[in-house]
Design brief:
The structure holds 2 protein chains of 2 kinds.
Chain A (H helix, E strand, L loop, with lengths): L10 E8 L9 E8 L4 E5 L6 H8 L7 E6 L2 E2 L5 H6 L1 E5 L10 H11 L4 H14 L4 H4 L9 H13 L5 E5 L7 H18 L2 E6 L2 H7 L2 E6 L3 E6 L1 H6 L4 H7 L3 H6 L14 E3 L4 H10 L4 E5 L5 E6 H6 L9 E2 L3 E3 L4 H10 L4 E5 L5 E6 H37 L10
Parallel strand pairs in A: 3-8, 3-9, 6-7, 7-8, 11-12, 15-16
Antiparallel strand pairs in A: 1-2, 1-4, 4-5, 9-10, 12-13, 13-14, 16-17
Chain B lengths: L2 H41 L3 H16 L2 H12 L3 H26 L2 H9 L4 H34 L9 H9 L6 H30 L7
The chains are: A alpha/beta, B mainly alpha.
């Protein structure tokens, strides 16, 4: 059974507030936001800013003291929280698996509560294990403590998704695993989301994680005030204020490189010849091009050697001995950061780009990278400014409508 | 008559006494477990209630068993009734305390996860909290049983059933030729029963504690 493309649901928070009795300031102060169906939104902010509290109010693990929550337009502020939670997946830090139940029993919990038939539950458990990349035969009857941290986290995600909820809430789910495993799990989540198109709300204090996973990022400051709610690109290039730029941290331009792939930038057309090209022609290329260098490809058109004009002379016309081997290439799907890394380590400051089967596509060098990055940053800046302009306009309109603003807006 | 000859001639009576002893302890344990766990479940969420429950049950335990049984006789009469009441009360402390400790010891993150995936209060208690608290509760039951084995012997003072009768008879006729044998038979019988019960608990633990949380 393949995943039916169940799109996620929209989530609307309207002046959502949590005020604990006996405290002067609310823990979460009038948060309003709209999350589109199928979108991954990351709440990021310093510890104690109320991001987790805000998340837990969406499935009402924490009851809001004010405001409304609407999922797919339906007001869920007043419905039975137990019923609500069965429709909303929930994954937490260090997996939250029940140690006395097997992997299969853990995953089967929600489908069973929803009254699925035994056969359907059994199929679903296998399917979910497959989905998160665990072999059902091997892991079905294991207990959580027999799994590594990363595997536990996968099962945690499988359990959250078992009943196919349109919405998935994730509360620092990868906070307790080592950096390498975390990276894997993040990649995995991106792949999953590509297949499933759930609406995911993800809480983290790691801004890099937010950039990697989020379609949009909400940077929250104390009492869950939204400092900025925008795409990673916009936040990186145009942080709304000092708080956001402080949180983005140093190297925003470098982080921006992570968001763009080599295929999105212009590649240089380098003269390329194959090992079967007659020498005469190769000489012609070398003389004709301004670069003094050609790229030699092997018979399957994969980058093989860099050839300079002098190389052929020194090797007395033998292609086998001439030139320097290509030791590093990047694929079209590599990030610009990877490309920059390769360019910097290359002694001539260029790197060949290859396609899916390793075939040569073009070359990027320092110059092309610089140009692309400049263009990107400029574009982002313009876009962000336009966006802010729009926001400011709608805001003035809203104020007109509402007559009196109630302080729900952030960042005057 | 040496001890073995005594056992040979009196084994019928001894077996009946041993059976009654075991049966009384077992039945009181069942009742004490039920009450203890229920009290634990009702009180563990609130600190003062949990403290009150522990305090009450430990106060009962500090009373000498002979005194408690003596106090019960004018109220409920002689025989089985005071025995059962005393044994059940004494069994409560370890069970209640361990139930409270066990339930409070369940990782709050797990309870949170259980709520988060949509488990109702009852379901959480039955499927998550009690199973996770079961190992300490079982330990409490085990400790309580060992204790009741000894205390049940005192019940013979109130004409209760069990091996205590042997001991009391022996003590009452100290100096007669079978006195020592009687005391010895009663005491050893209780020890053997206690060991058998303990073995049974190890087995119950094996069968009821899921592999995932067994150490």
């Amino acid at each position: 059974m393949t995943e039916q493309a169940v799109a996620g649901a929209t989530i609307e928070l309207e002046n959502l507030t949590k005020h604990y009795p006996g405290t002067e300031q609310p823990a979460v102060d009038s948060v309003s936001m709209e999350i589109k169906a199928g979108e991954t939104v990351v709440f990021v902010g310093p510890s104690g800013c109320g991001k987790s509290t805000t998340l837990k109010m969406i499935n009402r693990l924490i009851e809001p003291t004010g405001g409304r929550i609407r999922i797919n337009g339906e007001d869920v502020t007043g419905i039975d929280p137990v019923k609500l939670r069965r429709k909303v997946g929930y994954a937490i830090q260090s997996s939250g698996l029940f140690p006395h139940l097997t992997v299969a029993q853990n995953i089967a919990l929600v489908p069973k509560m929803l009254g699925w038939s035994k056969a359907r539950v059994r199929d679903r458990v296998g399917e979910m294990l497959d989905l998160v990349g665990l072999d059902p035969g091997e892991f079905h009857d294991r207990y959580p403590r027999q799994l590594s941290g990363g595997q536990q986290q996968r099962v945690g995600v499988a359990r959250a998704l078992a009943a196919d909820p349109p919405v998935l809430l994730m509360d620092e789910p990868f906070g307790a695993v080592d950096p390498i495993t975390r990276d894997h799990l993040q990649d995995e989540l991106i792949r999953l989301q590509h297949e499933l198109h759930k609406t995911i709300v993800f809480v983290t204090h790691d801004f890099d994680e937010a950039i990697k996973l989020g379609d949009r990022i909400a940077v929250l400051r104390e009492r869950s005030h939204i400092a900025q709610f925008d795409t990673p690109e916009a936040i990186l290039t145009n942080p709304a204020d000092d708080f956001v730029s402080g949180f983005v941290g140093a190297g925003a331009a470098l982080k921006r490189l992570n968001l763009t792939r080599v295929r999105d930038v212009e590649m240089r057309d380098y003269p390329a010849v194959t090992v079967d090209t007659p020498l005469q022609e190769i000489f012609g290329h070398l003389r004709g091009s301004g670069t003094n260098e050609v790229l030699l490809l092997d018979r399957r058109r994969r980058p093989y050697k860099w050839l300079r004009r002098g190389d052929l002379m020194r090797a007395r016309g033998s292609l086998a001995r001439a030139g320097t081997l290509v030791h590093d290439t990047v694929t079209r799907d590599a990030t610009l950061r990877d490309a920059l890394e390769a360019v910097l380590t290359d002694n001539a400051g260029r790197v060949a780009v290859t396609g899916r089967r390793g075939e040569y596509l073009g070359v990027v060098d320092m110059e092309t990278l610089m140009n692309s990055v400049h263009e990107l940053l400029e574009e982002d800046r313009l876009e962000a400014m336009e966006h802010q302009h729009e926001l400011a306009e709608t805001r003035t309109q809203q104020t007109h409508f509402a007559q009196e603003g109630d302080g729900g807006e952030q960042k005057a | 008559m040496n001890f073995w000859e005594y056992l040979g001639t009196r084994h019928q009576q001894l077996l009946v006494d041993a059976y009654q002893h075991a049966s009384a302890v077992f039945q009181c344990m069942v009742v004490a477990t039920l009450i203890g766990v229920v009290v634990g479940v009702v009180t563990y969420r609130t600190a003062w209630a949990a403290n009150l429950a522990t305090l009450t049950t430990s106060t009962i335990l500090t009373m000498p068993s002979l005194a408690l049984i003596g106090l019960l006789i004018p109220v409920v009469g002689l025989g089985v009734a005071p025995t059962v009441i005393a044994l059940t009360l004494y069994g409560l402390l370890p069970i209640t305390r361990n139930a409270i400790v066990g339930l409070r010891g369940v990782d709050p993150a797990l309870v949170d996860a259980a709520r988060g995936i949509g488990m109702s209060r009852t379901m959480r208690l039955l499927r998550i909290e009690l199973p996770l608290a079961w190992p300490p509760i079982l330990t409490g039951i085990r400790v309580a049983t060992q204790m009741l084995m000894g205390i049940a012997a005192i019940a013979a003072y109130a004409s209760g059933p069990g091996l205590g009768n042997e001991i009391f008879r022996g003590l009452a006729s100290l100096g007669s030729k079978n006195a020592l044998n009687q005391v010895l038979a009663g005491t050893l019988g209780i020890i053997v029963l206690a060991l058998l019960f303990d073995a049974a608990y190890v087995l119950i633990g094996r069968l009821t504690i899921p592999r995932g949380i067994r150490d």
